[in-house]
Amino acid sequence: MDVPEMINAGELVLKRWEPAWAVEAADAVSESLPEFQPFLPWAVDGYGLDQSRAFIEMSVDSWDAGTEFNYAVFTTIGELIGSIGLMTRLGPGTLEIGYWIRTPFAGRGHMTAAVTVLTRVALTLDGVERVVVRFDEANKASAAVAAKAGFTEVDRSRREPTAPGETEILVTTERRS
């Protein structure tokens, strides 16, 4: 899959994760833990430099393997404000988008812009027929981003919660080519 390593998105730039950004990424997640912990299992027990380095290393390896394509999200003045990625785990023809945004930048439309542009790019890739965003029913912020980015709900399924704020309901939304 020929996924671009950098995507310009107006006021944002999505760049393939690099190890040099580990400290800034750890800081971004740490300051946003109160918002992340209810819905992101990897944030429940805190997050520091070791976890940040491990995530970036996994991102580099997964990109090279063609299974995940994770980007750091920057403002055009160079502030790291979040992360977004495409995952192949739902099988052929489908890419799943996952994302988080640094708390001080939430609610400004940045993540909606990032999801919109990444979806547009994903739907131009060979063999990709749909892009999916999945989130817990209680995660209203993720639901709002998906809706504003033009995703339509296609499924609700039961599953075991993985973080303390989650319900048993996983909502699946999609956009098609």
TrEMBL record:
PROSITE patterns: GNAT. Coiled coil: none annotated. Gene3D superfamilies: 3.40.630.30. This is GCN5 family acetyltransferase. GO terms for molecular function: acyltransferase activity, transferring groups other than amino-acyl groups. It comes from Actinoplanes awajinensis subsp. mycoplanecinus. Keywords: Acyltransferase, Transferase. Residues 154-177 are annotated as: Disordered. Residues 23-174 form the N-acetyltransferase domain. Belongs to the acetyltransferase family. RimJ subfamily. It comes from the Bacteria.
